[in-house]
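[agent] plan:
  1. take the single chain provided in the ticket
  2. run structure prediction with default settings
  3. attach structure tokens to the ticket
  4. add a short note for the reviewer (M.T.)
[agent] executing step 1
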Amino acid sequence: MADLKERLLPPKPASAVNLGDSSHRPSASGRPSFQGVDLLGLKKRGQGLRSWIRVDTSGDSQIIEVDKFTMMRRCDLPARDLRLLDPLFVYPSTILGREKAIVVNLEQIRCIITADEVLLLNSLDSSVLHYVMELQRRLTANAVNDVWQTEGVALHRRRGSRSFDNVFQNTSPDYLPFEFRALEVALEAACSFLDSQAAELEIEAYPLLDELTSKISTLNLERVRRLKSRLVALTRRVQKVRDEIEQLMDDDGDMAEMYLTEKKTRMETSFYGDHSVMGYRSNDGVSLSAPISPVSSPPDSRRLEKTLSIARSRHESMRSTESIQGNIEELEMLLEAYFVVIDSTLNKLTSLKEYIDDTEDFINIQLDNVRNQLIQFELLLTTATFVVAIFGVVAGIFGMNFDISLFDNASAFKWVLIITGVCGLIIFSSFVWFYKYRRLMPL
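[agent] step 2 finished; step 3 output follows
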């Protein structure tokens, strides 16, 4: 990894100014000399040069510095597509198929895939470095496998073996084009990154939720709130990747647009076919620049040229239709495989969210139970207060300033207390029975 970082680091510009050099010191007037200005650096900053990592079909990588407009012309992309790759902006995950390139923005992987190369913004992020290393490894392994298989087939054919070809038909190498291999590595990196984050969230969430069910505290509630915020954000990102893959799978036109190698091959075939017809006409003695007269031009050559053109166009149309349908199936199988992976990650997050919701419901039930117990205690306390108030009423009545014969009886005070206590007990028991009858208190 350290070697790859050193290789991918942009080289130090030769135009950098050494401030310790005497030739760049200020003059006697106090102004810096003109030769100390980094004109090349200013020109690069003015053009908006950016460092890109380029990986070709053979797995070789290099650092190139290209400005925005050159990249637009090179990949035939509009400015809004390049804006998706800008690390200063945060855009949702997107996979766009264009005429000559595929724009991929999947989590940390932001790249442009063409039929001949992959262009990534130069970054020391571990995800980008792992993507470059994995893509180089697969391209190199594929190249070695193709060479080994070609040599083996030639050797056995020289030996006259007839069953060897049938054996290699069952163990054929990966015939996916370059752009699909690069897209596969990007999908795998994004799905693995999201799945690892979901696994880390699961490891942290379940013990915390179990602790919250056993002990409800402000600290645990705050930790669960933060955990749920992270879960919602991660679920939104996973859902976006899943929707993007599903949208591609549902649109055959977008999938056919992403087959860049087939489009490049058709363009080259059409170009060479036109040149062959022009060469045939030149060899036939007909001038290409002179105007063709309907009287002097030979009808056989024109008829042959028209027949060849029609036959070539029909053949190219039939071949492109069949190849596009076949490649749509290949790309659809590739997208379906990673759709299953990202859908599994989404199911994990959904299950975790359901577990959090169940925990919240359990905590709400516990809080409701405590609240009901408090209400029951309040009812009992209110009833007891009412019973005690009866003694206050009796004491207020006997405390009035008037004379009665009951004050002369020595045991009258004792009987008043007994009768008041029995009445209070009867009233309290009546209230408790009413609460139980109305199921306001547990039996």
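[agent] step 4 note for reviewer: The longest strand covers residues 50-56.
[agent] ticket updated
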